[in-house]
Structure formats: structure tokens, C-alpha cells
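WARN retry 2 of 3 for item q-0093 after timeout on previous attempt; input resubmitted unchanged.
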Amino acid sequence: MISKATRRKLEITWNYQCAVCSKTDYLEMHHIIPKAEGGTDDYDNLILLCAECHAAIHKRAYNKERYKHNTSIEYEKAIPILDDYFANRIGAKETKERLNLSQKTHLSESSVVRKYKREHNIDKFYNNVDLVNSKRRVRNV
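OK item q-0093 returned
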């Protein structure tokens, strides 16, 4: 299993773009040496590809409609929600609810959040609503 740290390092290395076509949506990890042939999940054995290029490398048909179902909400509808989140008007819990994401999902794993962060040049972000709530929980324990 590819760790989040390895994925993040790979995304930064490839500037959040497909290594083949430079697309920025639906990015996936591709093993250069397949795991079935002894390849590992190490950074040196991975490359970042969009779903279309990844399908082509594996000689699979690419179904564009499949990826529309994996997003929680259309990007245009997510923008006002993410505006509220990044302006510290709502916390992660409410953001996930409004984006139709599971509470177990990290916001950074959502394609709409990643796209929003790229388009708004957001690198590091700490949500004050979440910080206040976490301090409140610690005091109440």
C-alpha cells in the first residue's frame, strides 16, 4: 500500500500533473515494475499518471464516465463550500457533509479539494474552526 507521504512526495515531484500528458485531474499512482513482477510501493518505483494515460499503459479501455461517479460533488458546486472552509467559516465536519464525503475521508483525498487548492495556490492551511473545536474537546475530556 502506498503511504500518504509517498503519494504527496510523488505529487510534488510531478507538480500535481500526469507525467505523460500533464493533465491535473484523476491522478493515479502507476508502478513502473508491477508488484506482480516484484515491484514495490517505494517512491522510486512509482510515477504519477492521469486515469486516461494509466488505462492506456495497461491497455485498458478508459471510461470517462466512471470518474464522474468518484467525485463527491461537481467542482463548480463545491467552490462556494470550499470558499467557506478556506475562509474559516465552517470546519472540516460540515465541509465533508456539504461535499457528500464520508466523515472518515480526509479532505486532502478529495479531488475537488485538491483542484481547489491548486487553483488557489493553497499549500498549507489550518482551519481555525477545527483548531478551536479540538481545543474545546481536550478541555472537556
